[in-house]
């Protein structure tokens, strides 16, 4: 009998839902719907009823927003078509006036990134710098400049003027590739240039002061950090004893400065002071200040 009663409850006819939606009071319609569900089912007795109703509301809002997006797209399409038609029509362009054809003041050109650097930069492997149109290297005696040129260029196409304090080099009929003052004077009689493999101009400059590293080759270039210069040790044996001694001293001083240690001159002064103090033990140097 219990089974029959359950079957009767499952197959019982539902009461028809009679209610009309008033747009000015949608919550009243929603209350009637919930009241109808409570009378006709056990849904509201479930613990998850509230969450399921909230989920249903969320899904309905999502569907509604998708419908609104579709409506907006449909309304935008005809406007885009009108714009494309209008954009196709030719526009009247004003002809430049005679006054506008006059040369204007030169525009300021942004400086290369290398020139924006405030401090000295690390030199290349040849103790110089590499640029887009040329590069240069150096040792204590000489500076070598290499300039790439179109393959097959002969010496007649090159112009090169080497003066004591200035260099001008390039190809005939074109603006000079290099035109500026040296960092220091050279010996023009001991300088020369040639073309290597018909694709590189090589300019060799003999320094007048062969005990100084150049910070730049031509005025206007960024300066290199001469403390980062690395002389070729293999060539030190070719120098005369006096020059070699000076070079070794300079290299030692550079390494000491990089490590924050005293230079050779400072060490010599300290040794002299220690010797003087040992020779005069009767003197008190505890409160003495040394420069």
Automatic annotation (TrEMBL):
Residues 1-22, 87-125 are annotated as: Disordered. GO terms for cellular component: cytoplasm. Residues 87-102, 108-118 have a biased composition (Basic and acidic residues). Signal peptide: none annotated. GO terms for biological process: protein folding; response to stress. The keyword Transmembrane helix does not apply. GO terms for molecular function: unfolded protein binding. Keywords: Cytoplasm. CDD domains: p23_NUDC_like. This is Protein BOBBER 2-like. It comes from the Eukaryota. Its main location: cytoplasm. Residues 129-218 form the CS domain. It is found in: Cytoplasmic granule. Small heat shock protein required for the establishment of auxin gradients and for patterning of the apical domain of the embryo. Involved in the specification of the cotyledon primordia. Also required for normal inflorescence and floral meristem function, normal developmental patterning and thermotolerance. Acts as a molecular chaperone.
């Amino acid at each position: 009998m219990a089974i029959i009663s359950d079957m009767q409850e499952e197959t019982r006819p539902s009461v028809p839902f009679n209610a009309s939606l008033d747009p000015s009071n949608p919550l009243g319609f929603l209350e009637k719907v919930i009241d109808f569900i409570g009378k006709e089912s056990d849904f509201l007795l479930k613990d998850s009823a509230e969450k399921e109703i909230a989920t249903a509301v969320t899904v309905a809002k999502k569907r509604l927003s998708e419908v609104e997006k579709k409506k907006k797209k449909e309304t935008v399409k005809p406007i885009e078509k009108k714009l494309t038609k209008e954009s196709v029509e030719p526009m009247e362009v004003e002809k430049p006036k005679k006054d506008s054809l006059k040369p204007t003041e030169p525009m300021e050109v942004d400086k290369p990134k290398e020139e924006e650097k405030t401090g000295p930069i690390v030199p290349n492997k040849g103790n110089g710098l590499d640029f887009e149109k040329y590069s240069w290297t150096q040792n204590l005696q000489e500076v070598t400049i290499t300039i790439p040129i179109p393959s097959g260029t002969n010496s007649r196409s090159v112009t090169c003027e080497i003066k004591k304090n200035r260099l001008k080099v390039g190809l005939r009929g074109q603006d000079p590739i290099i035109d500026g003052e040296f960092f220091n004077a050279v010996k023009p009689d001991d300088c020369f240039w040639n073309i290597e493999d018909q694709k590189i101009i090589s300019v060799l400059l003999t320094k007048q002061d062969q005990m100084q590293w150049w910070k730049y080759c031509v005025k206007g270039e960024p300066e290199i950090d001469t403390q980062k210069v690395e002389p070729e040790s293999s060539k030190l044996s070719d120098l005369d004893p006096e020059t070699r001694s000076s070079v070794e001293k300079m290299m030692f001083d550079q390494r000491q400065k990089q490590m924050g240690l005293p230079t050779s001159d400072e060490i010599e002064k300290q040794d002299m002071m220690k010797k003087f103090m040992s020779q005069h033990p009767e003197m008190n140097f505890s409160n003495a200040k040394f420069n």
